[in-house]
Specification:
alpha+beta, about 400 residues, 10 strands, single chain
Length: about 400
Amino acid sequence: MFGKKAGFDPDFDLKIEESLAKNQYPSEKLDAARAMENPSLCAQMCTPEVWEKYKDVTSSGPAKWTLARAINTGVTYPDSFVGCHAGDMESYDDFADFFHPVIEAYHKGFSMKEGSSLTGTPSERMDSDKINIDLTDSAHDKIASTRIRVARNLSMFPLNPGGTRETREEVADLMAKVYAGIPADSDLAGEFSLHTKMTDEQRQALIDGHFLFRGKDRMQAASGYHEHWPHGRGVYVNNDKTFINWVNEGDHLRIISMEMGGDVKAVFARLSAGTKAIEDGVRAISGVEDVFMMHPKFGAVTCCPSNIGTGMRGSVHIMVPKLIKAIGFDEIDRLCRERNCQARGSTGEHSEVVDRIDVSNWRRIGLPEYELVEDMIKCANFLATEEDKL
């Protein structure tokens, strides 16, 4: 699957754009990007003035991140939407005149000056009992599957774009111990598989179950996500195949709860229980009290500014074939955006639209996770009602 060197595909290795490698402002490429119909946030915010301010600055965190590394994706691929990544939590504030406007532009309505007004603990904000909106019978019947995930990074390591093979392997080693500590009679119990040690049978089973991430995304590669591939990467799958963790795919952890059908509250409850079990397990093994990387203003820290805050995307695949035929995908997406959600293709982002739409929350920040699940439920109810009119 990965070729002779088990994943070291030269087309997906980290390449630093030529001018950035020389620490020079990539004016030609950014000017061209800004002239596009939908310029990336990287191109919009990395002005010559911002570059001059930060070109010789390194972050105060463990990655010693630079603005040149931060914008490599957006300069290399002008069609990217965000186009920038952090190498450690400190990057977000050390390059404030760049990252803060990016955050505010992506997360409409959020102000870095005002910061988060969230109250309560993360566990309280992920309490399924706080969801006060139910799916209608019509929406429930139309939902083929439900998937909710959060991105989390461990506070004792740099973010992966600023990390090394060693830090990735340390994250994987720590998580292997955490997973081994999950009680065998728990519905979270399962098996952790490292990419470097998978058998052909394990790999094929993960591919067949759509659980395996492959590390072959050009924009992610330009961020540094895929450096040292496949070392330190792994997948945890519980026995029921309803609780999945990706280790070092991009962020340290992608924690995923999923199942067929429309029992959104059950999926969210499992996600909450699983996230807490991981947090408790890491704390017990490492002795670190504040396990997850949290920023005082926006919450959960992630490599890409698009995921910060909650790092959560709750989605359902909802069957609306008549609506797709009547108004088309773009109009459905517009209606979803009006309701703080977004639409994706029948099998995810950039995929073909056939008979169903992937609907997920658009907002990520400034609200508790349970309210973002409510966004998704409201939108699914709306789409089901529109489908029933046709």
